[in-house]
């Protein structure tokens, strides 16, 4: 893949597909990690005299404008990070976008409105998607792919557009791919994988592929209860995907056969109801119970303290760690300890640690850890998982051609 160093960008209109899909509370950005992650690429293009056109999606607006998914607040924050004004275009390929692009001088930046406001961006119809890609291509001379969080999507701006313009990868995607290669090629061992999050079905592919590669797999979060149920434990009202139990049992058997250590929680923090994340009020019926003694009517919302110690011990000798998915409902203080324990173990350990995007990356920042103490914090949870599953990512394949 070409990098931006291989392109002559001075005076050229450079379309940068970024991933600025940040969490918003109203118009307030609650985590600007993805904006900061793409800033070095944009700054380098600005310094080289490019006329930079930034584009991204935000949320799932279903192919039509929706004010709650506007990128307008992102333009403001991006300008603050870059230290210069970022012009905001109120559409993607309409009069506002074309006028803003035409007015760009060397070293200036415009951010287009949410790409998913146009149905062609996500269409499964090649012709409709291609038509939107043609419109986007008419705005620019060159294309730079730097939205790692979207490279697993066959979308117009990710997959079709690079075929229409000379293209290269930005600094972020180059770094993300280099890190993922460290997790799949010549891995330094012991190699430990920590998986959490709500649904086991979201992680089946990566577990399947890693059963022949990882030395140890730690399972937390809501998905752990399907594993515990597979072992015959009562899980109360915990999140359970009963239809996945046969697959989970097969994975446990394969792990034993392949010499891969599977580590499940030995206790859980439980409650009879889901906590109010906005009020952050104390949970009156909070208790910690052994994993094999879950009370009826209560569900597990975090791994317990004994599991925290166990997981930390299992991470202590690791040389490479991949972590994707929180250990519990970390947004509430009563159920944040499991996620905090894993983050602390990685932050203080000697392993090359990769935090696999999504909620895990958000948790690291929300819980106050220094990002520099981790080997790498990915901007793309889904993309990272699919890469580790061994899948071809459309956005990366498009940039290789």
Topology:
Elements: E1 13-17, E2 24-25, E3 28-29, H1 33-47, E4 51-55, H2 72-82, E5 86-88, H3 95-102, E6 109-111, H4 126-137, E7 142-145, H5 156-160, E8 167-169, H6 171-184, E9 191-195, H7 204-210, E10 216-219, H8 224-230, H9 245-258, E11 261-263, E12 267-271, E13 287-290, E14 299-303, H10 305-315, E15 320-324, H11 337-348, E16 352-355, H12 358-366, E17 376-377, H13 381-388, H14 394-400
Parallel strand pairs: 1-4, 1-7, 4-6, 5-6, 7-8, 9-10, 9-15, 10-11, 15-16, 16-17
Antiparallel strand pairs: 2-3, 12-13, 12-14
Helix pairs in contact: 1-2, 8-9, 10-11
Report the count of strand segments: 17
Q: What count of helical segments does DSSP give?
A: 14
Sum up the overall morphology in one term: globular
Report the sheet-strand fraction.
15-25%
Structural class, please? Answer: alpha/beta
Helix content: 25-40%
For the largest beta sheet, what order do the strands appear in spatially?
5-6-4-1-7-8
* Major sheet attributes: 6 strands, parallel
List low-confidence stretches. none
Distance between the termini: 8 Å
| Overall residue-averaged pLDDT value | 95
Taking all Cα atoms into account, the compactness measure Rg is 22 Å
